[in-house]
Amino acid sequence: MTIAMAYETLYTVVLVVLSVLTLLCLVRAIQGPSIPDRIVSINMISTLTIAMICILAIRQHQGYLVDVALIYALIGFLAVVVLCKVYMGITLEKREKQKEGEKHA
After folding, report:
1. What is the DSSP letter of 32?
2. pLDDT by residue (tens digit) across 77-87?
3. Of 19, 46, 71, 72, which sees the most CB atoms within 10 A?
């Protein structure tokens, strides 16, 4: 077995492990139990996807895939920021309604 074949096998094993971890994060995103858990799991899926794209870039000797991973990282970061902003808005709105209910009671 040559070194190149050993690296190919290693990359394949790592990709399979990362794929399984991504599926587990997807299950966590669907099940919850809370919205912050879902946001963290979505962020983790994004991170694992970036890692898989970088490994594919190394495996296939394609430099442009690293650029794709960087763009995906930016999009993933913005998605998590937007999700957190929406979640915080909903939470603050619920607190305000709860305070108004306490004042009238």
Report:
1. -
2. 999 999 999 98
3. 46
